[in-house]
Design goal:
The protein is 9% helix and 39% strand. The strands form six sheets. Strands 3, 5, 6, 8, 9 and 10 form a six-stranded mixed sheet that branches. It starts with a strand and ends in a 10-residue tail after the last helix. The chain has 269 residues and is mostly beta strands. It contains two helices and 20 strands.
């Protein structure tokens, strides 16, 4: 609120804090890296993400955020040097910069029991609620029981077993009622407690197929209401040959007129 000699003349609203990026703190050369963000909302909202490497390379990607939640994600392959990710949300009348995220690129890519690998083969930046997600994890002891959980509200999606090489490959179903936005997938060894996690972007599921009930309801909405007066002979019934007039008398009358037979209700002349 701004005060002046004559009283209150206006209001000053606090600035909205810029939303943060979600990015892995470290990765290995050639690995797929995903950066997620939230709260990019507004008319004509668009994200511009720039990935800069220590060697001077720069990659610019533009994506559209989810129009309802403002969530977004970009995917790229790591190079051989550390990376910095900068992103901005632009709308028709404003631009908001996200805080930069730095990703350490490890030169030693050896995976062992203290350094679990986690990836989502086939994942391209978003998965639909009710859809499937393939999960691949490495670095567990052979035969380890592994729990796959989705957060923030913990939901166990699978409990696979690591193979002889300590590798886990499984496909899970994202619950259909999962809220749109950013969620976290975690893999955790039951006996060792070793774990790793990565964020994913979930999009709302589309409308399901039309059921018999829905089709009946939709037909009822499109069918004109019949008048409250009249007899059954006045009802029009859709048929393969066109519109048929229901009622035996009316049909019989039409048949006699078309064949030239006399009407039994009339006298012969």
């Amino acid at each position: 609120m701004v005060l002046a000699a004559g009283g209150v003349v206006g209001w000053t609203l606090p600035a909205k804090a810029a939303p943060a990026l979600t990015a892995p703190p470290q990765t290995a050369p050639g690995e797929t890296v995903e950066v997620l963000g939230t709260d990019c909302l507004g008319i004509d909202a668009a994200i511009t993400a720039t990935v800069s490497t220590a060697s001077g390379q720069e990659t610019i990607t533009q994506v559209q955020p989810d129009p309802e939640t403002g969530a977004w994600g970009v995917v790229f392959d790591a190079g051989s040097t550390d990376m910095t990710v900068n992103a901005s949300c632009s709308t028709y009348n404003a631009t908001t910069d996200y805080p930069a995220a730095t990703i350490d690129v490890r030169q030693d890519t050896t995976i062992n029991a203290t350094d679990l690998g986690l990836s989502f083969p086939g994942y391209t930046g978003a998965v639909t609620a009710g859809g499937t997600l393939q999960i691949e994890a490495t670095g567990f002891p052979a035969g380890e029981n592994v729990t796959v959980t989705m957060y923030s509200t913990p939901i166990v999606l699978a409990t696979p077993l690591a193979d002889a090489q300590g590798r886990v490959v499984t496909t899970v179903i994202i619950p259909p009622d999962t809220a749109a936005g950013i969620h976290t997938i975690e893999v955790k060894g039951e006996s060792t407690g070793l774990k790793n996690s990565r964020p994913i972007l979930v999009q709302a599921s589309s409308a399901g197929p039309m059921t018999t009930t829905n089709r009946t309801s939709a037909l009822a909405e499109r069918t004109p209401q019949l008048a409250a007066t009249g007899t059954a002979a006045q009802i029009l019934i859709p048929g393969a040959g066109g519109l048929l007039l229901a009622g035996g008398a009316a049909l019989a009358f039409t048949r006699r007129r078309s064949t030239g037979l006399p009407d039994p209700g009339r006298g012969h002349k």
